[in-house]
Amino acid sequence: MALRSAPLWLLVLLAVALRQSCVGASSHSLKYFYTSISDPSQGLPQFVTVGYVDGQVFVQYDSHSRRMQPRVSWIEKYVGKEDPQYWDRETQISHGHEETFRRNLETARVRYNQSEGLHTLQWMYDCELQRDGSREGFMQYGYEGRTFLTFDKETLTWVAPVPQAQITQRKWDAIPGLNQRNKAYLEETCIEWLQKYLSYGNETLLRTEPPGVTLVRGKTEVEDGMETHVCRLDGFYPREIDAFWTRDGVVWQEDTLHTSVAPNADGTYHYWLSIWIDPKERGRYRCHVEHDSLPEPLDLALEEPTNSKSNLGLIIGCVVVALVLVGVIAGILVFFSKCLFLREGDGRTPFGELLLGFLLS
After folding, report:
1. 212-301 has which CATH code?
2. Is the distance from CB of 189 to CB of 124 less than 8 angstroms?
3. What pTM was computed for the model?
4. Which residues of the chain does CATH 3.30.500.10 include?
5. Which CATH architecture is the domain 25-206 placed in?
6. Rounded to an integer, what distance in angstroms lies between the CA atom of residue 101 and that of residue 35?
7. pLDDT tens digits, residue range 82-100?
């Protein structure tokens, strides 16, 4: 049961939300994205929840199916054995989320003095277990694609970048113990769920697959004689990868461009980095690649030109299209606050209902 039923724009939007730099990504992460729209058209759901483990969609709920559903086989297999009530419980929780988002969308519209029409309310939380054992977390709300509220777990306060959010900020900061519980959730409860999901999907999530590395040379610029080279990495897992250009064995950042690590349909990842160089100095450059799947780093030298036609134009074209798409969509999706709304005994935290109930009241 893949995300085939979800609209294309939503899948792209969520994919953009997950983009990270290839350097310094967390070792393992659990993320939930919630999106609600006030005026659905062309069959789009009014409310969608999507959960990710290490960037892989593993659960989804939407207002069409009205069921929390598995999106990978490992969660369906193991949860069915260990927690038979999981799907019914998550479905009921999602029903509550959907209704609360509907009310808060209307409240937000009034607070911003807007007319009826298409408006969006979004929410995100994530927790990260990094390689060194440290724990990170993040939560944020957004309205109309812009940040509405962000939780600062170091100062235990909410940050309101817009005046319309200050009412909620003051309420939440005044609730005794609430922000301490938010922090504890991100650094403890959420991590416990992440570790549980990793144990369920260990054959998939803890595997390693090495990158296929291809060097592609482009045309030489007429004006200055400089030429472009692209180092393409594909099919690797996990997503953490360290790749850069070197000159004479030293990291070289000048005249370089790289994309973000992006997912493939099969759950692996791909990544590109390019460089502009003087062809006379071609022998000085290498594409350096480090990944958990590699017994030792790779250093690939640039090849001498051949008579074969380069396909760099196609690659660069794809990069340009991707960057334009990111620029259009990036303003839509905002990251939001944590995994809440659950009742006592459901395995997460009972104070979630409090947060959404107060969100825009």
Report:
1. 2.60.40.10
2. no
3. 0.69
4. 25-206
5. 2-Layer Sandwich (3.30)
6. 9
7. 899 999 999 999 999 999 9
